[in-house]
């Protein structure tokens, strides 16, 4: 008497389920390998190109107003122009949420001025001009004395500060956002008495930048 072997419906269902799991594992392995390869290529290109930080130079600074309305409140009007340069030959830079303000001895003396977002191509330069205003800015008690003391030396040292976010562009790939901070020191020539015109930049150097 022979024994007839038959496959039950439950056995077929288990076999189909195992096959489906195998296909899903292969698909997951393929996708993981594909994305890892793309990421490796991007990282390799990134390290080969090694993008340099942008450069900033202070071109012009004019102080039209810097006066105390009370011992602790300052009114100020400053105009500034900076040169921004992308030194990279193969990497572009997007700038977002860039703000500018002026400071004196570590204290902010104007409100923030926000610059429009812009893109800087390979080895491209842009002039960034802004007007800065301070109306009733609170200052420390000795502010007036220190300004007067610096005016007697013929130079008023003012810092122009920028901060914002940048993104690197390599081909069609664009990186995430990186915060950057720029610090520019301006030596401003002071006026004698009631001499007309603004106090203007005497000397300015290349600005420092951190990314």
UniProtKB/TrEMBL annotation:
Residues 81-184 form the Late embryogenesis abundant protein LEA-2 subgroup domain. GO terms for cellular component: plasma membrane; plasmodesma. This is NDR1/HIN1-like protein 26. GO terms for biological process: defense response to other organism. InterPro entries: LEA_2 (IPR004864), NDR1-like (IPR044839). The chain crosses the membrane at residues 27-49. It comes from Dioscorea cayennensis subsp. rotundata. Keywords: Membrane, Transmembrane, Transmembrane helix. It is found in: Membrane. It is a single-pass membrane protein.
């Amino acid at each position: 008497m022979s024994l007839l072997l038959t496959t039950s419906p439950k056995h077929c269902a288990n076999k189909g389920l195992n096959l489906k799991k195998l296909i899903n594992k292969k698909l997951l392995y393929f996708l993981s390998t594909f994305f890892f390869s793309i990421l490796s290529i991007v990282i390799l290109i990134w390290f080969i190109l090694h993008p340099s930080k942008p450069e900033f130079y202070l071109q012009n600074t004019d102080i039209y107003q810097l006066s105390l309305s009370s011992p602790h409140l300052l009114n100020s009007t400053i105009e500034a122009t900076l040169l921004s340069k992308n030194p990279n030959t193969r990497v572009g830079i997007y700038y977002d949420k860039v703000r500018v303000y002026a400071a004196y001895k570590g204290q902010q003396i104007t409100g923030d001025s926000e610059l429009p977002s812009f893109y800087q191509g390979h080895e491209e330069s842009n002039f960034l001009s802004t007007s800065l205003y301070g109306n009733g800015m609170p200052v420390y008690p000795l502010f007036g004395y220190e300004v007067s003391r610096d005016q007697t030396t013929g130079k008023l040292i003012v810092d122009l500060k920028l901060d914002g976010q940048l993104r690197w562009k390599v081909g069609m790939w664009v990186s995430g956002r990186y915060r950057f901070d720029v610090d520019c020191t301006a030596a401003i020539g002071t006026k004698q008495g009631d001499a007309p015109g603004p106090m203007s930049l005497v000397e300015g150097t290349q600005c420092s930048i951190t990314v």
